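Supplementary Note 2. Why include the ligand at all?

Several targets in our set were suspected to adopt different conformations when bound, so apo predictions alone were not considered sufficient. For every target with a known small-molecule partner we therefore ran a joint prediction. The input for adenosine-5'-diphosphate is given below.
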Amino acid sequence: MSDNPVPQTGELRVLHVEDNDADAELVAQALRRGGLAISVAVVQDETEFRQQLKACPPDVVIADYNLPQWKGMEALEVLRSEELDTPLVLVSGALGDVTAVECIKQGATDYVLKDGLARLPEAIRRALQEKRTLRLRRQAEEDLARKVNELARSNADLEQFAYVASHDLQEPLRMVASYTQLLAERYQGKLDETADKYIAYASEGALRMQQLIQDLLAFSRVGRSDVPSQNLDCNAIMDEVLLSLSAAIQESGAVVTFDKLPRVWADRPLIAQVFQNLIGNAIKFRKTAVPEIKVSAEAAGADWLFSFSDNGIGIAPEYAENIFVVFQRLHARTEYPGNGIGLAICKKIIERYGGRIWVEGQVGKGSTFKFTLPAAMPEKNAPRLELVGAQR
Ligand code: ADP
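The joint prediction is reproduced in token form.
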């Protein structure tokens, strides 16, 4: 698109509201002298103005501020009532600063004094440029809103698909898993060695697929549950999570410490899931040293900033984003078990409550997973920002 706001083909159509022929001629001369190719229609009152608007819609309106029967600003009201965004430039004998500012506030694009008409062509060019910019911006806003809608719809479709697929796959898979298990129990050692091996592969594959599908279902359920947020004591949630991870903690000798944690507004099982996934990973991705896991939270503006740090194997910065994507893992299952869904679930839960989650750290130097959660209640009664629970 050209940078020149003035129409390149044909003339600029000017509709001039003016009762004085000499003044109208002076304005036309000023425009031509300023290099504008114009065709001008001069009208004196509202009826003529409306007729001309219909007969030949102008590119710009110039209006005398003070006509005996009509006021220039009333032309603006007509333009509005016709839903036209044609720029209007006022031309006037003497217009006080206050009045001029008021006219601009009400929507006139500019004003030019009659004894300063040399400025008029530039005022018109600027008015047309402004209108063009405004149109482009509106267009861009509309495009963006449409794309956001499309994205939301396709996300919802995808979520529905993941839910239905994982839900409906469970039943046939349960059959495959139980019958391969039956086969294994009944025919183990009764056929040849190769048959034993095949049966073992089949039941192992079925079990793995069952786990995968259950995880996928858990992932797609995060977006579906519509439980209203509760005010949760994160210390109590942490106690529960440590209890349910006690076998892994004991087996690895992990030392988990946490500072006083705040209360947050969320759904209890979902926040417990985030804590459990992060601590579970910190234990799973350990080095040979005893895992040391530290959990803390601090106020950060309108949010709580949580931090889960460990002394495990760490994560290379280039994978810091990938690991939050479903099924993305950095290791073979034989090295570390898992499906690569845990962090995707954490991200979905945290974003659902308006927070952000990310990881910091280096390979071999441990990782720190951080996430934010808004401190305020989602709608009305905001909670107090307070730390509760015992120091550990
Ligand atoms: P999974 O644990 O099933 O592999 P996750 O989605 O929980 O899936 O994690 C994705 C990947 O992120 C893991 O496979 C691992 O490579 C990396 N990761 C997650 N947590 C940690 C951690 N605390 N330390 C090092 N790497 C981690």
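DSSP finds ten helices and 13 strands in the chain. Residues 277, 281-282, 285, 310, 312-315, 323, 329-331, 338-344, 367 surround adenosine-5'-diphosphate (CB under 6 Å). Comparable summaries for the other entries are listed in the accompanying table.
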